[in-house]
């Protein structure tokens, strides 16, 4: 079954939150609805629930879901008036949403499971986008969201390449547009047409790009400066973790977790945050994820406990 | 001086050592007013002089705080006690133990020695009377053999002082 458009979600929410509607009996949901939803949240895990809004706090639920790489995702699930006969609507920061499989017996945990499966599929796409952001000189967006599949890459001499990566087939030839006035562009456009068949799904994205353009792409401006800008961890006060075999892949690593509260945005080593969450009794664990609060602003945080 | 309570202390971890060096460096650049770090080469135990703020019951009086850091600081709170003689205060026991939530349950790595010191001074400054806690004798009797205040199950009831 296909997903509902986002606009329908807004109207559902408006209906649920609007005072006059709330007062009228017409839009009130049966008591069984609430107990069913509570039971279904329980199945997903209360610690994953970030917020609940509208209609007694259950018609628009936001869950926190971590993917295999420890990226934090927020999944907003809106329950329509005739839920569960009609499927819920999903909103999330992803390039495209999964086709929700919904039947009479489906529950919230099925939605979460399907979304998790969807995140698995998207891992390859995100690792490619991360790679682009790391290796190439990306001028826009400076703070990409998970959903953004475009990148504007500087080629030097005021020339830019606007990339559109196909999130469904991230390893395929991307859509490109060349921007700039320099004569250099003509050569690059010619090369692109000539060599685009050389694009190979087995090679790294930036290697493919260099091959097809027959041009050495400039790296992001001075990586060293970036290291100076690298911020200290709010727990250990260091930029880098100690070099220590016990820390495995994290040995010597930089901060890799930022509090999502925009007025906090404290950076941490996920290792430090995990050690702190393990040290206190109020932390909750669900599978391999620890749920607790930011030591600075107390907003919810979640870290994976697995990868050493 | 009180026999310093040192619960089988392990050396500081690399992370703890690094963080304490940074805290000390920051302290030396801008120490919290009213406090003086007594220079020593022991990073794991700081002794800090605190002078009562003007206009309070403790104006001009000087006391000494002893701060001991656990191996895994800042994942665990430091142990903070007053050295003898401890100020007379409704939340400070005669053996130097301090009833202050941030030293125990409410500790967070977002705090620092400096911020803890400021909290302690503010606790002194808001004191209504120079007196010991009601259960002082019983508590101190139970703490013999240099038990750490971190082993006490504190009950934080008074949010006024």
From TrEMBL, chain A:
Residues 229-305 form the FANCL C-terminal domain. Pfam families: FANCL_C, FANCL_d2, FANCL_d3. Residues 1-23 are annotated as: Disordered. One of its GO terms (molecular function) is ubiquitin protein ligase activity. One of its GO terms (cellular component) is Fanconi anaemia nuclear complex. GO terms for biological process: interstrand cross-link repair; meiotic DNA double-strand break processing involved in reciprocal meiotic recombination; protein monoubiquitination. This is Uncharacterized protein.
UniProtKB/TrEMBL annotation, chain B:
It is an enzyme of class 2 (transferase). Residues 15-161 form the UBC core domain. Keywords: ATP-binding, Nucleotide-binding, Transferase, Ubl conjugation pathway. Accepts the ubiquitin from the E1 complex and catalyzes its covalent attachment to other proteins. The keyword Nucleotide-binding applies. One of its GO terms (biological process) is protein polyubiquitination. Its EC number is 2.3.2.23. One of its GO terms (molecular function) is ATP binding. This is E2 ubiquitin-conjugating enzyme. One of its GO terms (cellular component) is nucleus. InterPro entries: Ub_conjugating_enzyme, UBC, UBQ-conjugating_enzyme/RWD. The keyword Nucleotide-binding applies.
